[in-house]
Amino acid sequence: MQLSTLARQMPQTPIRLMYRVYKYVLPEVRAELARLRVIAEQIPDHELRTQAIASMTSKQFHCEGGGIYAAANLQRRDVLVPLIVALQTISDYLDNLCDRSTSLDADDFRLLHQSMLDAVDPNAPLRDYYALRTERDDGGYLHELVRTCQACIRKLPSYSAVQPYVTELVGLYGDLQVHKHIVKERREPALLAWWEQHRHLAPNFKWNEFGAATGSTLGMFMLFLAASDEGCGSEEALQVRNGYFPHVCGLHIMLDYLIDQEEDRIGGDLNFCNYYSNQSELVTRIGDIVEGARRDVSGLPAPKFHRMVIEGLLALYLSDPKVRGQKDVQLVSKRLMKKSPLTRLFFWGNSVVIRLRQFK
Question: N or C terminus: fewer CB in 10 A for the chain?
Fold first, then answer.
């Protein structure tokens, strides 16, 4: 793979990476979120406004974490930061709408998520994404998010090379959101049937792990980063896609589900960590996915950067305050953190600091 220009720019040490995060990424991500929040606060429909603001408030760290990929190419961060923030905000907003929806209509959920497919297609027309639900007047909020993504994508010099794989991952993400939010008794059968159609994409994964992998936006963001380099062609794009999906993406969302177990139990939401015979099997499988992720990224340019992403994921999620309130999750966390490399401990400390700075 020949993304040499980009690879030379990517940070190779935790200190250099976090310097860029603190100096450039966090301020710019938060500025972009503040811009979007002003628009969200003007949404006429009360429910849509509530969910839009809640998604930015409770899931700000999703955008901050995604911003890591802008730190890898500071010269293009003016494109990468708003693109990553806008797409992640669509994802978080729609997840809130579907989780707490007044609808259980699969067609409604699919139409909502058509906005993500349109967002990653610079030539797609805008649509009425709320046409199949009661709450419809968002004052142009979702259209603004889609337009922001499209405008940024047009500035990526190699987007045509990565677009098929971005579209693939966004399509799988939308499928997941449809299947996991329909009537409860139909969710697992729908997910299992869907997995049967796509299990060749992740042959070593169980059905719930495949579902988790499709729920990640990290593969999309890495493809955006690759597209910011003029030397990225179709071969390089495929290598990036295979480097991140399914293992890095799967690790990301399995950790997310791990810390959300109690929250999902209370909300009656499907959680992919609940499909193991015991906590020991859960730890073993997450450990296997970690090893698979490390193996997959070893063939990418600047593998040290991608290994930092993996260690950062473990640190970010296992340091989350949610862990302390769940005894089973605490035990899993301790086992996963056992013999942690210094890089992970470094990112653990920084994750705590970043969370504290959110509230200042």
Answer: C
